[in-house]
Specification:
The structure is a single chain. By secondary structure, the protein is an alpha/beta fold. The chain has a single domain, classed as Rossmann fold. It is 28% helix and 8% strand. It is built from 4 helices and 4 strands. The chain has a 4-stranded parallel beta sheet with strand order 2-1-3-4. Strand 1, helix 1 and strand 2 form a beta-alpha-beta unit. The protein is globular and about 35 Å long.
Length: 111
């Protein structure tokens, strides 16, 4: 699993559980607004089983794919990590959450 930045990676690690390896694509000091992906970054995105992104245009310069898990999903503002209740509300329908053993997420929810 690869997340676009360290915050998304931390959320993915906590939701997916200890048996899932999650890599953060951007260095912690980088901004997704102006980060230029390297060839290695693009390959990591293409090879990932799951890509966790914020969506809502935050990673506009990235080609994250149509099946990426977008945490901000249908919001205009991708900065939902500023409000933990918005993050919590975004998680139950996501693939990452549904596959954690013992997860309270509903298995039949779609992305």
């Amino acid at each position: 699993m690869v997340a676009t930045n360290a915050i998304a990676a931390d959320i993915a690690r906590n939701v997916a559980g200890p048996g899932v390896e999650v890599d953060s694509l951007l260095p912690e000091s980088a901004s997704p607004h102006d980060y230029a992906l390297s060839a290695k970054d693009r390959a990591e995105l293409e090879e990932a089983d799951v890509v966790v992104a914020w969506g809502a245009g935050l990673e506009a310069g990235f080609q994250i794919g149509d099946d990426a898990v977008e945490l901000a999903n249908d919001r205009d503002d991708p900065h939902i990590w500023m409000d933990p209740t918005l993050v919590a509300a975004a998680l139950p329908g996501h693939h990452v959450c549904r596959h954690r053993p013992g997860s309270p997420c509903k298995a039949d929810q779609s992305l």
